[in-house]
Amino acid sequence: GVSNAWLETLLAVIEALPKETVRQEILNPLVSKAQLSQTLQSRLVSCKIMGKLANKFETHIIKREILPLVKSLCHDVEYEVRACICRQLEHIAQGVGTELTKNVVLPELIELARDEGSSVRLAAFETLVNLLDMFDADDRSQTVLPLVKSFCEKSFKADESILVSLSFHLGKLCNGLYGIFTPEQHLRFLEFYKKLSTLGLQQENGHNDNQLQLQTLEQEKKYISVRKNCAYNFPAMVVFVDPKNFHLELYSIFFCLCHDPEVPVRYTMAISFYEVAKLLNSGVYTIHKELVTLLQDESLEVLDALVDHLPEILELMANGGENSGSESKLLSIPDLIPALTAAEQRAAASLKWRTHEKLLQKYACLPHIISSDQIYYRFLHRMLTIILTNNVLPVQKAAARTLCVYLRYNRKQEQRHEVIQKLIEQLGQGKSYWNRLRFLDTCEFIMELFSKSFFCKYFFLPVLELTHDPVANVRMKLCYLLPKVKSTLKSPSDKHLLQQLELCIRKLLCQEKDKDVLSIVKRTVLELDRMEITVDACIFSTIVFSKDILRKLASILERQINSLEQLEKDKQQNEGRSTNNNDKMFEKRRRDSKTSSLLTKSITLSVPGNSSGTSAGKEGKKSKLVRSQSFSTQALHPKYSNIDKCPNKSCNTGYTSSISGVGKSCMLSFSGDSFRTHSNGHNGNGTLPSSSSSRTLFNSADQKNSGNKESQSRRMSM
Description:
Blueprint: H1 2-13, H2 19-33, H3 40-53, H4 59-74, H5 79-96, H6 98-113, H7 118-130, H8 137-155, H9 160-176, H10 183-197, H11 213-232, H12 234-241, H13 246-249, H14 251-258, H15 263-280, H16 288-295, H17 300-307, H18 310-319, H19 336-349, H20 353-362, H21 372-389, H22 393-408, H23 413-428, H24 433-449, H25 452-458, H26 460-464, H27 472-487, E1 490-491, H28 495-511, H29 515-530, E2 534-535, H30 537-577, H31 580-600, E3 603-605, H32 616-635, H33 655-672, E4 675-677, H34 691-704, H35 706-717
Parallel strand pairs: 1-2, 3-4
Helix pairs in contact: 3-4, 3-5, 4-5, 4-6, 5-6, 5-7, 6-7, 7-9, 9-10, 9-11, 9-12, 11-15, 12-15, 15-17, 15-18, 16-19, 17-20, 20-22, 21-22, 22-24, 23-24, 24-27, 27-29, 30-32, 32-34, 33-35
């Protein structure tokens, strides 16, 4: 025992050791330890170490230093050594590559397959099966296949342990040699598999005597192992015969294995059932009876193995057959619902609560398989009963979550209201504090599976009522749940619910007497203060839209103010360049048009030009200048002319009203005034109101709107 423990440690650390260390400390002493003169234990240890070293060194080192030792051990006088080195040939072949495997390893395997020791032949057979991928088609057909055929033919005459190994590797063997089988050989191997699948089920003549009872018991154990291995290899045999031929070739064997009298065989079939269903695809409807059989199996081990992939199996059953319509889902599986309910009741009656919990979790897939009414009448009330009566907490939570899934997919409003009412009355307002705790668990699942509005509509206030619960554990669990409860609220539509939540928290802080609950309440209050309430999407978008409008309006007004300032500078520069005659004529025309502009609220623009028409560019420039002067004198009130001169700190409060005033003046100037141009022959007469007239215009408009100015500035600032 000590020696084997150190050997396992050495084999484990070889992977991490440097090559030079392995070569000096392990490989060099191994040459002497593997000699025939050493003890049997020493040679067995050398065999195991060689298999590990084969993947550590390069091919030329293995060929020069390890392969000679391997050949020597393959011809050892002790069958234990030959069997041990035979099992290491798989690792050695992977280390030396395909060419050396064909030239060196395969001849040794062929010789060992004909060894006189049954354990050596068995090791050679298993190694050949594992190395099938490294042999080409010629080696498989000319060398491997004859050995396998002779091995199978002699297996029934030899020890039953060979049958156990052969049945375990048969699926891999049949698929590995599939391409070189003739139809006759294909049929022969299929019949051999069928014979192994029913081995021990038929009583043979002469085996019922009492004198052979002990021998028969030993054989029966081996036969059970053979049938279990056949169940393990069943998906591989489905591939071997092609799923299209399943009903004709393998269905009878599938039926026998699912109804086998031994639990290990049925357990293995339950594990393999999903793989078989996937392979059959559209033909999965042919095995629905066996699904019902395994669901009704008396052994919970079989049920536990089947439940692992039950949602996938049921989905294939519902959608995979020829009749895959929504109305005909259960027509092909009429006994499915009774089998599912019976399986749950059988699991509930046992002491294996983990199987019951797993089954309830997997039953959450049923809304995708069967109709809403069938779930309501056959499963939903059963889940509520489990929550109320079962004493195992994980089972109750699994039932609560599955019930919430059923409620989510229920299509009838009346049924949903009925279930919600029962949850509130029987759990939330139940006499047992244990039921009230389960109500909080159910609410947590509802927040996970449903929308926030659904929870707020039906469960928000019933949850808050538990703040007055007489049991401290209920109030404590509620405090832990309050952050999630608050996260379901939206502002401002749920403002009244938020007020109720704050009121309940105040009552807890003021009236709570239990010190543990009070400490949790204080921590919860701090966590709630850090939380932000979700804003309704429509209101949030309106706020964002309003902010965008205000930002754009402010930027437009700022650009207008800057442009007005630039236009005034240009006007001053152009006025200095004009002649005295033009200035006098300009002032005269402006005084003449002052009265008319106040009455008609219109501006007639024209620029005096040269009669010869040689300075058209100057006329356009002066026309723009006159328009700029009119805009500047009417758009900007004198009391807002020094906005930019205000210091930042003193103008913070008046900035918004200034912007509003500018906005109103701009709107007045654009709406109240019109721009027209007239030309009289060669000479143009231009009229422009004076600055005083423009101020008069603005003041009249300002006085007219003085009542709305304050409210408009307030709206602008908001």
